[in-house]
Design goal:
Length: 163
């Protein structure tokens, strides 16, 4: 849940608060859960409601500059770590630029591996909306990341010519 909350808000402290609020609400309303195998989608539905409540209370902000995460393995050299960090930053940045609805659906389907029906229940939207938002999000990411690859390749080619 923390990973999804973080991908939605890009603020670790806020994501932790959202998860804590989600779990507190879940404990209060645990008698409403009828099927134990539906616990995970039920919790994510509560997380979605907490996130929406937060958005109602405050203006959302997408400050990518504040993202902190450890990207380094002990077995990876500095050049590979730098390249990997750039790729991760580029993907995060592209996801952050998606509209909120697309970002929510993308993270639930692609990162958390929920089915379309589960995402429909979590976000309380029709399955068709889940599919269309996911399609648009993936197309947008593909376009954004391909443009990045092309610009990086052309800059690399220019550098080689100078040498």
């Amino acid at each position: 849940m923390l990973r999804v909350a973080y991908s939605w808000c890009h603020d670790r402290a806020l994501a932790e608060d959202l998860v804590q609020e989600t779990l507190a609400r879940a404990v209060e309303k645990c008698d409403q859960l009828r099927e134990s195998e539906q616990t995970e989608p039920w919790l994510f539905a509560i997380l979605t409601n907490c996130w929406r409540d937060h958005l109602r209370r405050q203006r959302p902000h997408d400050d990518i500059e504040d993202i902190e995460e450890s990207l380094y393995d002990t077995g990876v050299g500095p050049e590979q770590s730098g390249e990997r960090g750039q790729i991760v930053d580029r993907v995060r940045s592209a996801v952050a630029r998606l509209p909120l609805g697309q970002r929510e659906v993308l993270t639930l389907v692609d990162l958390e591996e929920f089915s379309y029906a589960e995402v429909s229940g979590i976000l309380n939207i029709p399955i068709g909306t889940v599919m269309s938002r996911l399609c648009r999000a993936r197309q947008s990411l593909k376009k954004d990341l391909i443009e990045f690859d092309m610009s990086a390749a052309s800059e690399s080619a220019r550098l080689r010519r100078v040498k």
